[in-house]
Amino acid sequence: MLIATLNINNVLGRFDSLIEWLDDAQPDVVCLQELKAEQGRFPAEALEQMGYGAVWKGQRTWNGVAILARGMTPILTRTALPGEPDSSQSRYIEAAVGGVLIGCLYLPNGNPVPGPKFDYKLAWFEALLAHAQDLLTTGAPVVLAGDYNVVPTEADIYPNHSYGGDALLRPESRAAFQRLLAQGWTDALRAVHPNAARWTYWSYLRERWPRDKGLRIDHLLLSPDLADQLEDAGVDRWVRGLDGASDHAPAWISLTGK
């Protein structure tokens, strides 16, 4: 099973690049974030023509999350994170696909720091930690995939960067991510590539894409049983280079399905 996550940064405006990637990569499951489209404008029919069923939770202007499945419709289980601090923001959706529970999330950015947006980021993270622990307790095979807006370590950002003090690198953000891993989740990209940089995001600013000044903020976390099935993981960098592309590239994992 090939499972991918992509912050599409406007699903309607970047639909052509999404279709080009789907046609090339043929992922079995896709988690999308930042749809930036209200519920009724999600391109479900066009995706169905490509062979993908979908469940989604849209939001006008900002946020929005979706799960796509090739050859089937995901079985929707949740459209919100339990205990999330602001239910008006579409940041979490959960569905079963092929015997695996998929949680698609868009964790708040948190900037500027300090301030209410950073407080909201940490509060949302606490809700995620609680739900993630509950998911592990069930014993179900789970993937928590999406844009976490956290650079876990200095190995996950280009050298001599200018992000000092940014919410993505704050000690509180990194500590929350480490607490998540400590529950028993496996960071799939880091597990497969322990010593290699695999950026998933390059800002539009300051020529960071052509200069390869990237960050790893899109993560796929696996429950213990799925970690044993992890075969490969990577990032489809070429998608970031398409005309009008998102500032993120798809990150993916391959599971053996034993």
UniProtKB/TrEMBL annotation:
Record bears the keyword Manganese: yes
Cofactors: Mg(2+); Mn(2+)
Keywords of the record: Hydrolase, Magnesium, Manganese, Metal-binding
Active site per the UniProt annotation: Y106, D147, H248
Site (Transition state stabilizer): N149
InterPro entries assigned to the protein according to its UniProt record, in alphabetical order: AP_endonuc_1, AP_endonuclease_F1_BS, Endo/exonu/phosph_ase_sf, Endo/exonuclease/phosphatase, ExoIII-like
Superkingdom, taxonomy of origin: Bacteria
Pfam families: Exo_endo_phos
Single GO term (MF): DNA binding
Transmembrane spans: none
Site (Interaction with DNA substrate): H248
Binding site for Mg(2+): N7, E34, D147, N149, D247, H248
Endonuclease/exonuclease/phosphatase domain location: 4-248
Site keyed Important for catalytic activity: positions: D218
UniProt remark on cofactor binding: Probably binds two magnesium or manganese ions per subunit.
One GO term of the biological process aspect: DNA repair
PANTHER family: EXODEOXYRIBONUCLEASE III (PTHR43250)
Family: Belongs to the DNA repair enzymes AP/ExoA family.
Name by which UniProt lists this protein: Exodeoxyribonuclease III
Higher taxonomy: Bacteria, Pseudomonadati, Pseudomonadota, Alphaproteobacteria, Caulobacterales
Gene: xth
